[in-house]
Amino acid sequence: xxxxxxxxxxxxxxxxxxxxxxxxxxxxxxxxxxxxxxxxxxxxxxxxxxxxxxxxxxxxxxxxxxxxxxxxxxxxxxxxxxxxxxxxxxxxxxxxxxxxxxxxxxxxxxxxxxxxxxxxxxxxxxxxxxxxxxxxxxxxxxxxxxxxxxxxxxxxxxxxxxxxxxxxxxxxxxxxxxxxxxxxxxxxxxxxxxxxxxxxxxxxxxxxxxxxxxxxxxxxxxxxxxxxxxxxxxxxxxxxxxxxxxxxxxxxxxxxxxxxxxxxxxxxxxxxxxxxxxxxxxxxxxxxxxxxxxxxxxxxxxxxxxxxxxxxxxxxxxxxxxxxxxxxxxxxxxxxxxxxxxxxxx
Length: 346
Prior knowledge:
Elements: H1 2-6, E1 12-15, H2 22-25, E2 27-30, H3 34-42, E3 48-49, H4 59-68, E4 70-71, H5 76-82, H6 85-92, E5 100-101, E6 110-114, E7 124-126, E8 135-139, E9 144-153, E10 157-167, E11 179-184, H7 192-206, E12 209-218, E13 223-229, H8 236-243, H9 247-255, E14 269-276, E15 281-282, H10 287-291, E16 303-304, E17 309-317, H11 320-344
Parallel strand pairs: 1-2, 3-4
Antiparallel strand pairs: 5-8, 6-7, 6-8, 9-10, 9-12, 10-11, 11-14, 12-13, 14-17, 15-16
Helix pairs in contact: 3-4, 4-5
């Protein structure tokens, strides 16, 4: 996604998958883990580097990147601070934040979350028992799971757009608290001013620069912040499609201390969904997927294990409900093709 949003010549993508469409956009260096990706990146000539998902949980790797390249994003100190749930709550002050604890609480409904996590992975309902190392508890808030995509200049922030998160959607192969996409705008109206207040407060408290995201639960009256992703977020494909904003350019300007002017309302609805495998599959002729606008396209003959992502679908529509329906229809078509191809291959 980042390489596609950059729309620049000479982009090098250090990637775990090396998907078909990525290879048409950038020079690709594929490796099997984050450390290996950083090893490859620091072997390149000095330049500018942007990191994506998961690196917010690995500030030491970001530190290595910054020693070799100019970092377009938040430095390790900011990552450590904003990903600390206790420090996050303190920074929010009087803004809504669920009760959060590193020890066993006496009452309430709680979610157990990993300190180093993302996308809802390993988030579980917690009722009782020992709290494993590397996890914390956050009180559950009922409402619509949303997110704000924002850009900071180190002192303040501007919200680029609001999304409703697709979580636990069986149509896309996930359950529970697992993220699988975004709708723009949220189907339940969310006041922009509350999201702006949260993002501005956090940008000032943690000196956030460039693109970042805030996940929150809208209970009908208040936006409860539950997590901050201090890097470019997965919702940006849908944000760009709905608001017409050039997200990567906004990121570069934010890192340089410049905030953009943005449209307050989307010009259209948009949606993004990641399709996950519900069983082990082998991909057939995925070249034709490129012609249909499918993204993160695996290579023909690639084997994908159950519960792993297969590809991404992005659409625009008149309403978010229509966008979701189109995403579900395309997901069903793709899954049907995979079943046929697996059966044909024996």
